[in-house]
Design goal:
heterodimer; A: mainly alpha; two-stranded antiparallel sheet; 14 helices; about 80% helix; about 0% strand; globular; B: alpha/beta; GMP Synthetase, Chain A, domain 3; 2 domains; four-stranded mixed beta sheet; 13 strands; membrane (chain B); Spore_GerAC-like_C (chain B); palmitate (chain B); GerAC_N (chain B)
Chain lengths: ~375, ~375
């Protein structure tokens, strides 16, 4: 299984966009009011910094996954513990995303279909692509999904221009101030931190020395899109409606009515967007299966797919309602997972790796 | 092995998809317009204009069978969705709200307050926010739904297309929701009315010529109508074009003004709040009943100045009227203060209702005559009074 840098870029862009336009805009507007777009720009900078660290750590151990290099750096048992915690985090995130995705589809398209059926169909597709080709198949699929998602979003932005009230963006900065802007940025910054899955993927990247640029670009472009989305949502709905809508981007797309015949574009966008959620969940399934297999010392990681998929599906049925799932992002992801797993531990790993003095070129030669 | 599992999955998919939400298009009752009124005992009365496809086809084909393409169903209850169930009980098909174009609120309900009905419009994902919303002047929402316009099967759609005064069209609900809950602006809504001159007009014609003014609690407190409502929307910044007729003192002159713009500067001097409103537009002369030769710049320029002065006085009078009679900032002048003086605004925002009537407003108008129409001078002999 080999991924090219371009495929890496497509994969990460797809999975970052799907979250940042979907869940992060309205919490940011709620905190930073009409300056939410500044928040999201700040979030992009934080995301770039975090991804830089993550990529550096993984480049130093390009032929190993997180599970392996954590054990190598910190000793067998502490390493296993940390890797296990990371995998637990990824299990919980993927279950959370799976559930909120199913609820979203149920709310907008299928009112009477049980949630578990929608989730089951998604899991079936995820299992299939992982069995069929693993990460390489996902990468190829995202080559298709990523550009079409970008194109679709650009089209909706262009068509929405006639609905905009630029006045709603003013006054800049005076109403919120630095603290709310920084607070508002944490939401998207932490979501951009999902790039930590790169630590599991480096062994599959064909040329791991060239992976920094696509990884950083894949943070840049989604952040820019999030900034534009926030500006558009604020100019279309104002801060009051914008902060209360749970999925403001989709409400905005529903609002488009161009020349009386281009309307109801939400169905198209939702279709492309389902692709991108699929990419995201499939990658999670892959790293969870692969990581669990390595952790337990199972040689053939494909055996784990069915087991992991079943666990993710089961966890996804636990939360009671949509607010419970959104609370996961608010009270677990931002407060615990972001500082510990996305910022703290990678820095520690990087420091340990530097102190131990692994020479990166030697490892890379081994890899190539 | 892989093939077999794929086949099993595909078969399973065929059985488990689409069973719960399968709905044929002819199982749906399309809901086109909503009327909301206050019933005599103080409850909420909801009327629905529902498309009847069979009638639609005959009249669309030019048959003109006289059958209505829609029916109006009413129900009385305490909340909107409670009423939705009652309307559903009267229909053989599943109601579908996605095509609703407009909402008509009876004046008595509007005056009582509409906070209780607004939540549903943004929460219910079956509805679209792109909806027009009207207050029915001196009447009930149901009356408007009963109108049979010769132009369209559905009076709810006619009203949207006729909403030309503010040019808000179907974004009116969004615009109302934008103004709700902001400190420096109060909501306003177009009004629709049936004011028939004769019996035939009564069932066929609706008029959109006034604007309802709401206060902070979403209670209607008054209305401005005709020219004043246009001026109000011009100052608010949503009007795109209008006809203007002015009496110059030596005859009338009429213009079509487009590309309307407004810019507002604000100033806080001690305790006094000042707003300078500049209105601009590009005009085309449509009618000239004066002796002014529009083709001569020496005569046209003074005319422009005169028109501007007259218009500025009229707009000032309209603003003064709203300030004194209703005291609600439907123009959004408070938001202009907010934008220009964000720090001082924090002290003003909570008492804006008290401050707004005392804001000193100065209006300047700049209407440019760019075209004199098809002729320059008047044709000698037609109305030429000299």
């Amino acid at each position: 299984m080999r991924i090219t840098p371009w495929q890496l870029f497509c994969m990460f862009t797809t999975l970052e966009i799907s979250m940042s336009i979907w869940l992060t805009v309205s919490p940011s507007i709620e905190i930073a009011r009409q300056d939410a777009w500044i928040s999201l720009a700040v979030a992009g900078v934080i995301g770039l910094f975090v991804t830089l660290i993550l990529t550096r750590v993984s480049q130093r151990h390009a032929s190993l996954t997180l599970v392996e290099f954590a054990q190598k750096l910190l000793g067998k048992w502490i390493g296993k513990l940390i890797a296990g915690l990371y995998i637990a985090v990824w299990f919980s995130v993927s279950a959370d995303i799976l559930r909120i995705f199913s609820l979203f589809i149920k709310q907008f398209l299928f009112h009477d279909t049980p949630v578990w059926v929608i989730a089951m169909l998604m899991v079936a597709a995820m299992v299939y692509i992982n069995f069929a080709g693993g990460i390489e198949a996902i990468a190829r699929f995202s080559e298709l999904a990523g550009p079409s998602l970008l194109l679709g979003i650009m089209i909706t932005f262009a068509l929405n221009i006639s609905n905009l009230h630029p006045d709603l963006l003013l006054p800049i900065y005076a109403d919120s101030g630095a603290i709310p802007i920084l607070k508002g940025s944490l939401v998207n910054a932490s979501f951009l931190g999902e790039s930590m899955m790169i630590m599991m993927l480096t062994p599959f990247i064909a040329n791991s020395r060239k992976m920094l640029k696509p990884a950083l670009l894949a943070i840049c472009i989604p952040s820019m899109i999030a900034v534009v989305t926030a500006i558009m949502v604020i100019m279309t709905f104002g801060t009051n409606i914008g902060s209360t809508l749970i999925f403001p981007y989709f409400s905005m797309v529903r609002f488009i009515n161009y020349l009386e015949f281009i309307q109801n574009m939400d169905v198209w966008i939702m279709c492309i967007w389902i692709f991108s959620v699929f990419v995201k969940l499939s990658i999670y399934l892959f790293i969870n299966s692969y990581g669990t297999a390595q952790l337990l010392g199972v040689k053939n990681w494909r055996i784990m797919i069915g087991f992991v998929a079943a666990v993710i599906f089961a966890i996804s049925l636990v939360p009671a309602n949509v607010i419970g799932i959104l609370d996961f992002a608010k009270f677990v992801w931002i407060i615990y997972i972001f500082p510990i797993f996305i910022v703290g531990l990678p820095i520690i790993l990087l420091l340990v790796s530097l102190i131990r003095g692994q020479s990166p070129p030697a490892r890379e030669q081994q890899n190539s | 092995m892989r093939k077999i599992s794929a086949i099993v999955w595909l078969t399973a998919l065929a059985f488990i998809t689409g069973c719960w939400d399968r709905n044929e298009i002819n199982d749906y009752a399309f809901w086109i317009g909503t009327g909301l009124d206050l019933s005599k005992d103080g409850k909420l009365k909801k009327s629905a204009q529902i498309a009847v496809p069979a009638g639609f086809r005959t009249s669309g084909g030019g048959g003109g069978s006289g059958k209505r393409a829609n029916i109006v169903i009413s129900a009385t209850g305490s909340s909107i969705v409670d009423l939705e169930q009652q309307v559903q009980d009267k229909l053989p098909r599943k109601i579908f709200l996605g095509h609703r174009r407009s909402i008509f609120i009876g004046e008595s309900l509007a005056r009582k307050g509409i906070t209780d009905i607004m939540d549903q419009f943004t929460r219910n994902t079956d509805t679209r926010m792109r909806t027009d919303i009207f207050v029915v002047n001196n009447g009930d929402g149901r009356d408007i739904l009963e109108v049979k316009s010769p132009f369209n099967q559905f009076s709810a759609i006619v009203a949207v297309e006729q909403d030309r005064f503010c040019r808000l069209g179907d974004t009116a609900l969004r615009d109302v929701l934008l103004d709700v809950g902001r400190d420096g602006i109060r909501p306003s809504m177009p009004m629709v009315e049936i004011s028939a001159k004769n019996g035939k007009e009564k069932d066929e014609i609706i008029e959109v010529k006034s604007v309802a003014i709401f206060n902070r609690d979403l209670q209607m407190v008054g209305e401005v109508s005709g020219r004043e409502s246009l001026e109000m929307f011009w100052v608010k910044g949503v009007l795109k074009n209008q006809f203007i007729m002015e009496e110059t003192g030596e005859g009338t002159i009429s213009l079509y003004e487009s590309n309307l713009k407004k810019t507002v500067r604000t100033e806080i001097v001690g305790n006094r709040l000042k707003a300078y409103i500049k209105l601009e537009g590009v005009g085309r002369v449509l009618e000239n009943n004066t002796n002014i030769d529009l083709s001569a710049s020496s005569e046209r320029r003074p005319l422009e100045r005169k028109l501007n002065d007259i218009k500025a006085k009229q707009v000032e009078a309209t603003i003064k009227k709203v300030q004194q009679q209703y005291g609600q900032d439907v123009f959004g002048i408070g938001e202009e203060f907010h934008r220009e003086h964000p720090r001082q605004w924090k002290g003003l925002r909570n008492k804006w209702d008290r401050l707004f009537p005392a804001v000193e407003v100065a209006v300047s108008v700049k209407l440019k005559i760019q075209y004199t129409g098809g002729i320059g001078k008047r044709i000698p002999g037609i109305g030429d009074r000299t």
